[in-house]
Structure formats: structure tokens, C-alpha cells
Amino acid sequence: MNLLSLLLPPGDKKIFLCWLLLLGASLAVLWSVTEPILGPYEDLDPVVAKTVFYRQVVWVFLGFGGLLAASRVQLRYLESIAIPLFLFSLVLLALILVAGPRIGGAQRWLLIGPIRFQPSELGKIATILMLATTLGKASEQGARLSVMVGSFLLTLVPMTLVLREPDLGTSLVFFAIWVGMVFWYGIPGILLVGAGSAGVCGIISFYSDSIIHQPWPWAAYIVVLVVVLYLVRLSTLARISILLLNTLTGVGIPFFWSKLKPYQQERILTFFDPGRDAFGSGYQAIQSKVAIGSGGLFGTHYLHGTQKGLAFLPERQTDFIFSVIGEELGFVGAVILLALYLAILLQGIQIGSRARRPFSRFLAVGIVSYFLFHVVVNVGITTGLLPVTGLPLPLMSYGGSNLMTSSILLGLLMNISSRTFDD
Amino acid sequence: MTGGRELDVRGRILRLVAISFFLVLVINLFIMQVPMHSHYKDQALENRQERFRVRAPRGRITDRFGTILADNKYIADITLPRSTMTGAGQDSTLVRLIRWFELDSEKTMSRLRRQFQKSRGRLVLVPNATIGQISTVAERARQLPGARIESRSRRRYLAGPLTAHLIGYVGEVDPADLDTSALGMGYRLGDIIGKQGIESTFEERLRGRNGMKLEEVNAQGHIVGRHTVWVQEVEPGQDVALTISLPLQQAMADALGPRPGCGVAISTRTGEVLAAYSYPSFDPNLLTVSITAEQWNALVTDPAKPFFHRAVQATYPPGSLYKPVTSLAALGLGVVDTTTFLEPCLGGWEFGDRYFRCWNHAGHGEVNHMDAMVYSCDTYYYQLGLSMDIDQLGAAARALGLGERCSSVFPEESAGLIPGTAWYDRRFGKGRWTRGVLLNNAIGQGEILTTPLQMALLAARLASFGEVPAPRFVKDPAEPVRLPEPLPFSRAHVSWVREAMYQVVARGTGKAAAVDSIRVAGKTGTAQNSHGEDHAWFMCFAPVARPEVAMAVIVENAGHGSSEAAPVAGRWLDTYFGQSEDTVNLIRSDEDVAGEGRRP
Fold it and tell me: Does the beta carbon of A341 lie under 8 angstroms from any beta carbon of chain B?
């Protein structure tokens, strides 16, 4: 084995190529973000320091190490340490809530020397591994409701801890991972109907309670639901379960709402009406849309984005990095970027479908769910389709913890693929 | 265990879900970046371009020699963007500035809140900032996003009360006027507009045109663009030169002293007003800063009426200053000649059942026309009045410029009143008044009213044989010289009146106006009025042989013209003729130029 083959991770080369291209794009955009704006401007210092770029270069090398390691690790070994790792991550998550430093009003970080580390990132990997282990083992006896509920309860623990940091976006990542993996486990149609109706019910309940402050839309929905359940041929148990689920959601949503932090409530309300706070949380959404929209088909060209350069675009090196791409590289650049992500997802689904061992299948689907949620929600936020909540764009946003997590997860996907095809 | 077929189905569903989500993202991106691109591009441009209105510097006002009487003092305000008050929580820039400048936090906040509600522009944190405050903001701009130093100008009146009535003052546009659009175009709330005097009359010329520029700013509101796009260039206001001379204006104030009254001097060749001072006056500089309601009320309700522009706005009975008019009318009608003796003055004249007194109760005895003028014998003039009818006397007065406004500069200028038959019929009813009014009219009493400017013009007309153009307050080449109608009197009669007026100063009631080595012709007056003591009047011109200046002085409620008003004229003429050669040459030479251009 020569040095080059040692440095080249085994497995799916398409995924590795996407990883390389995305990180190349990330560094290019971070360079642009930390450059002074070009054009008829005085020599403006960029508001984001150049060190952001150089730090990320270091993280790219570390991330490559993570990817390499993950692509070569024994999957059986991972399966065996999944539960201890999960418990360890829960301890860390609990620890930062008790003793973590408070930065910007939130306790999300663990300080190890000069490095800031987010335990929630470890939590994502650990939760995927843990769910893959449990669901993989359970899947050999066919789908059971108790497994679904049990796995949800397991996921609920890190979800709740992350929500307390507080970090709504990341806590929803855990939920998305669970949904994807449980779907793979096999959800009966009736449960999907129940969950779907509960989702609709939740939105209507929220609308009644928090937007118009009148109960009648939700009441009307329940009446309609009762009529539909009476007409449709279903077992009595199913009818009662669905009705109960809907009622619980309808009551639970206002309760959950009241438990949200004011800034979270504000963000969600602002999503429904961005003009509500044009200088506060609505500002980010408006400015991001302006930046992307002003990019047009081919963009304002690399380094020339004015919304980025003149600092109208907030968080442009982290959560809103996609807006910079939309502005400077335009529709074409943005679609190429999305295509890279879609390629990873489709490749991941194929790997999951073809994997021989159940653990590997569930692991692959968990990773796909992670990327699907992160990319769709982040791009949805920057384009104004979703309310603003802090969520990085994997491999693109500045930040070491997320880069490391994403690289490790892609390494695992490559690991699975190498074994599938080797067998 | 789930079967392979089922897994394939789930894989397909998952693929479908992923592709659908991405399709939604791409479609949404397409809508934003292609059909709606121009909308967002405009918004991006709007984001970084801020419109700045640049006020045009107002034109200066100078005296005839270019001495500046009104100019603009530039002051700087420290301003904050409106978002300071709309953002969530306290604005860091505001907090810093309050701490660094040691401002009262609560008072400042409530002041800014009021501004926010009242105006639509940026908020002024520190008006008229000190050099220290300005340099703090300039040096630490990075720590103070949004803060900006904006300069504006304040009107400054260098001669203060001395020229207040002529120049007037400026103030902020009245919001009520903006709504009714009674003003010209382009005024906005907070703009400066002339409120009185020359500032108001010459508003269009002084004002210039405000500019509008687009500057590129960053999110913190700092100007970053190297290029400035001028949507509308600034056109500075034009200067306006007055005809008055500041030293002569000062001399008039000194000569009059702090007594309610007025002195007006005009060039007998060009009609240019050389000095026009009214007392009491006010300091216009007080009105350009934020004057308090109490200060304003004190000025407006002051019984001395400091805003009253006596030179053109006040009307008084002319008293004996009217006697040359009566003489010219009588000479023109041929009822007397220059040497005629009438019935002797025994201290008054009986008409009907009334006895009209001469001011000299002892009587002047037998006097001819000349002595009647020189000693101002009322009895003689009663008889002259009775020798004509009221409209004949009025016509003579009108021919000399009385009874009408003599300038268009001041809207507050009064026309005075020269009553005639029609007026008396209207006032008392037809046939319900007698020729008795002629006795009063003949000595400038009764219903006749004139302004000090009209009296100065009367003296100038007599001095120039009626050739003096209409009075001018502004040296404006564009303004046509308004030449008067030729006088309907014979030149000999006017010469005789001039001689009589010279005798008044040489040996009669006007001795106090005499000046060394200069021959002065004048006429005293003592105007009775129903409100109190008599007003002391004097009008004159000099030098007699080749007149160059004419003036009128009134001192309200001071008593006799000979003792109270004539000395004022004497003092002013002393200064006028005692000026340094340079100044006199300047005045005389440009008068000569104007004079030559005027003569056919």
C-alpha cells in the first residue's frame, strides 16, 4: 500500500468528490466574505476577519482526518460502542447545561483549551449510531409500535437537552433523524395518516392560538375530522387513537408555545409576518432574500456582492453563507451547489438500500436524514421559505464542529459502501 | 425482517421525498433570481443608497460697499438614524454617546422620542456640537455605527438690531404653509425661509436651490462610496446688496439716540436709500435660534413695538413739513406769488365759529410768503388753504409722491393718506363737512398721513426738481429705474421753495440742522397727534447748490421739530459730509454714473 492509497478513503468516490467540491466552494466563499468589497468603494475593511478563512483551512484538514478515519473504522466496532457513546454524549449535553459557559445567552459549547466544541454535534452522530443499532436489531423481528415509541423516547432525551441550550434548530435535527430512520424501519400507513393529520392539526392549532387568538378554526377542524373518521372504514381503536392524537396535539401546541423562549416565539411570529420586526429577526430574513434575489441568473460575480460586502447580510460566514452564493454566483451557482448535496443524498439512499447488514442500512438512512434536514431547512431559511432558526449548511458554513460531524458522517457512508460492494 | 422489495419501495419514496424538497428549493430560487430579480436588485440598491438632501447656502446680504450684514454660520449636528428608536433594546451607539458626552440619559431619550414622532428625518442627538464632540464622533466612527456629523448653516446678522427692520429675519417654514402650498415648490418641514424684510422679499434669489445626492452606505450607515451621484446639483443662493451704507446707518442710529422714532436718508440723484433706521429695534439673531415662547411673546407684546418698521410702516401727520406742498399748490394756482403779503398773523385765524391757532400764539404780524415758510406761520397757510379747494391741494401732494407707496420692497409699507372730496364724502357724508378741513390740511394736520420715507422722498424731489427716481433699497441692476412724472410746477416756483427751505436752516426754525461749510435746506414740523405729545419732524437736503442727499427725521412725542428733530439731521449730515474721502467718493461716483445714465 503506497502513501496515496493510504490517504484516499475507500468506498464511494462520488461522495468523496462531492465532499471535496463542497469544501472547495466553502473556502472560496469564506475567502470572498473576508475580502474587502470590490468596486467603487473606499478601502473598506471586511467586517469578517481573515482569520475565519485560515481557521477553516485548518478545520478542512482535520475534517479530512475525520472522514478518513470514519471510512476505515470497523462498523461492528461502532455498533458495539453505540450505546456507551450515546450515553456519553448525553452526559456532555447535560454537563454544559449545568456548567457550560454562557456565550451570547446560550450554553452550547464546551471549551477544551482553545477549541470550542459543540457536544450537540457529537450527539447527532451518537444518536444516529444508537438508533441504527436498536432499529437494526429490532427490524429482524418485523415492525412493532413499541420499538417506534421506544426509539422516539430515546431520541427525545438529546432533543430536550439541546432544546434547553437553547437551540431549536439543532433539536429538530434529532427529530428529523428519528423520522427518517423510523420510516426506514417501517411505519404502518395508519400511523402516517395519524401523524400527518396531527401535523395539520398542530399548524391549525398554532394559528388559532397564537396568530388570531380565537379557537374556532381548530374547533372546526376537529369537527371535520370526527365526520371524516365516522365515514372512513377504520377499526374503532384506530379511530380513537387518531382522534386522541389530534386532540393532544391541539392542546399540546399552545402549551409547547408557551414554553418557548420569547426570542423563539418572535422568530416564528416574524416568519408569518416578516415586516413585524424589520430591524430585528425579520431583518435577517429580508436581507437574505434581497441578497439572493439581487444575484440574478449569474450573480454579481465572485467578490462583488454588495449586500455581503457592505454587511447588510447578517451571519454571512455561518448560517447565511448560502445567501452569499446566491448573490455572487447567482441561480446557476446555487443550483450547482444544491446538485452536489442532492448527489450525496441520492448516493446515500442507494447505499442504504444496498447495504447487507441492517445496522449499516439504518446508519446510511440516518446520515441521509441528517443532510436532507440540514440542507433543506438552511436553504429554506435563507430563501425565506422557513422561519429563521440557527442551523448551519453542512460543509459550507464556517465552524469546526459541524464540519467535523459532516465529514465523519460522509466517511461512514463511504465506509458502508466499500463493504457493500466488497462483499 | 423487512424484505428487499419493501426496502426498494422505501428507498424510492425517500428518493422522491429528497428530490421533491430540492425541486421546491430550486423553483423558489428560480422565482427569486429570475422573474423577481429586478425587484430584489432595486431593493439591494435602495439598501445601500441613501438620499441626502444638501441645503443650498443662502445668499448673503451686504451694504452698498459689500460689508456683510447677513451671512451663514456653519454649525454641526450629531445625528443618529431612525432605527436607533425602533430597534429592540438600547442602541449601542446611543448608549456610548450618552456616556461619552455625559448627557442626561432620560432627558435625551424623551427628546429623541419626540423628534422621532414629529419628523421623518434622522434624529439630532447633539445640535450645534462642539469641536470636541465632533472629533470624538469622527475618530471613533467605528465604534459608533450610524452616528453622523451633519453640518447645517445658521443665519447670522452681523449688524444685529441696526439693520433688523430692513433685512428682516429667517425662520423655519410654517408647517401650515406647507400644507396649503401657499409657498413655492420645494419647501420641506424644517427648511429655512425669509419671514420679514429683504429676507422675505428676495427669498427666491437668496434661497438658491437645494441639491439631492445619492451616497452608498453600508449596513452601519457609514458612507462608503467613492462616487456621489448628484440627482440635483446645489445652486447656492445669490447675494443681495442693499443700498444703505453701514456707517451711515450707524450714524443715523447714533444721531437719533434711544428715542422712538426714525430717520431716512436717500440719494437725491439715484433714489437709493442710504440709511433707514427705526427705533426701537430687535435683535434678529435671537429669532434664528430656538426662541422660547416667553421671549417671543415679550417681543410681540412690547408696548414700544420693536417689530414696527417705522420708516415705511408708520404714518404720521406731516405737520409743517407739508407747507412747501401748500406753497407750491398756491403758487401754481396763482392765488399768491412769492412775495405776497396776506392778512397779518395775530396768533390765529377765525373760520366759521372756530378759531384756528398759529403755533406762535403771540402772532407773526405781517409776513410775506417767504417769511411765512421760514418762520412756519400757520395763519398765513390757513389763508393759503382757503384760497384753493381740497382736491387742488391733494393733487399737488400726489404730484410730489405722497399718498402712495413709494417702494415695492416691503409689503408692510403704508401708502399714507392724502384726503380729497371723495374721501371726506365717504367719511362724513356728502355736504356734512366744510372747507374748514382745508385749514388743517394746509398745515399738514387733520386727516393727512405720511410715512418718514415719503417725507425723505418729498425733500429729494424738491432737491432734484422732481427728477429723483423711486426709492430703492437694493442695488439690483435688473430692477428698472422708475423715473417719476415731471412735476406740474414751474421750475421757478420749486427754486423759490428750495430757497425758502435754505432760509429755514439759515435763519429760521431749522438752525439746528446747519452744518459747517455745507449749505443745508430744510423744514421743521411739529405734528399734533391725539395720542400724546407732538411728534418732532424735520426734512432737509444738502448741499443746496448741488444736492446729493435728502433726509427726513421724526422723533415721536418729543415736541418741537426745531429743537428735537433738526439737531438729529444736523448730526447725521455732519457724519455724511465728514466721511473719509474714500467713502464719499464711492457714494458720489456711483451716483454720478447712475445719474449720467439717467439723463437724456
Answer: yes
Would you call A407 exposed, middle or buried from its count of C-beta atoms within 10 A (0-12, 13-18, 19+)?
Answer: buried
Cα–Cα distance measured from residue A264 to residue A387, given in angstroms and rounded to the nearest whole number: 10
Contact present, B545 and B519 (Cβ < 8 Å): yes
Put simply, the answer to whether B88 touches A277 (Cβ < 8 Å) is yes
pLDDT for A301: 75
Q: At what angle do helices A119-138 and A358-382 cross, to 10 degrees?
A: 140
Write out residues 347-366 of A within 8 Å (CB-CB) of B: 349-350, 352-353, 358, 361, 365
Residue of B6, B18, B87 lying closest to A279 (CB–CB): B87
Band of pLDDT at residue B311, cut at 50, 70 and 90? very high
As given in the structure block, the three cell numbers for residue B127 are 445640535
CA distances from A365 to A127, A139, A373 (A): 13, 14, 12
Q: What is the mean pLDDT of each run of 10 residues along chain A (423 residues)?
A: 75 92 94 75 65 92 94 91 94 88 78 80 94 90 83 92 85 91 80 76 78 78 85 81 85 82 75 56 77 86 73 78 91 95 95 90 95 94 83 92 94 87 43
- Which cell numbers hold the place of A64? 479530512
Distance CA A272, CA A267 (A): 9
Nearest residue of A to residue B7, measured between CA atoms: A353
Residues 6+ apart with CB under 8 A from B347: B357, B358, B360, B361, B362, B363, B379
* Cα→Cα distances B197→A385, B406, B410, Å: 63, 16, 6
Residue A234: count of CB within 10 angstroms of its CB? 16
B227: distance to nearest CA of chain A, Å? 7
SS3 A6: helix
B566, B525 Cβ separation under 8 angstroms:
no
Q: Are B505 and B511 in contact (CB under 8 A)?
A: yes
CB atoms A330 and B33 under 8 Å: yes
Name the grid cell of A294. 439581487
Residues paired with residue B170 on neighbouring β-strands, in sequence order = B194
By the 8 A CB rule, do B436 and B351 touch? yes
Test mutation, B22, B36, B216, B223, chain A, max A CBs within 10 A: B22
Contact B25 A365 (CB under 8 A): no
Q: Which residues of B touch A180 (CB under 8 A)?
A: 14
Model pTM? 0.64
Does an H or E element contain B240, and which?
Answer: strand B240-241
Burial of B41 (0-12, 13-18, 19+ CB in 10 A): middle
C-beta atoms of B25 and A379 within 8 A: yes
Instruction: For residue B127, give how far its alpha carbon lies from the nearest alpha carbon of chain A (Å).
Output: 26
Q: Is the pLDDT of residue B586 over 70?
A: no
CA atoms of B502 and B509, how far apart (whole Å): 11
Q: Tell me, what's the ipTM? A: 0.86
Could B21 and A372 be called an inter-chain contact, meaning their C-beta atoms sit closer than 8 Å?
A: yes
Question: Judging by DSSP bridges, how do beta strands B240-241 and B61-62 pair with one another?
Answer: parallel
CB pairs under 8 A between A and B: 148
Average pLDDT over residues B510-536: 88
Written in H, E and C, the secondary structure of B339-350 is CCECCCECCEEE
Is the CB of B37 less than 8 angstroms away from the CB of A294? yes
Inter-chain residue contact B14 with A180, CB threshold 8 Å? yes
Q: Which amino acid is at B172?
A: E
Q: Which three cell numbers stand for residue B85?
A: 428608536
Give the per-residue pLDDT at B599. Answer: 34
Q: Please answer whether residues A375 and A316 qualify as being in contact, where contact means their C-beta atoms are separated by less than 8 angstroms.
A: no
**How far, in Å, CA of B160 to CA of B285, rounded?**
7
Longest dimension (CA), chain B: 150
Query: In Å, how far is B122's CA from the nearest CA of chain A?
Result: 16
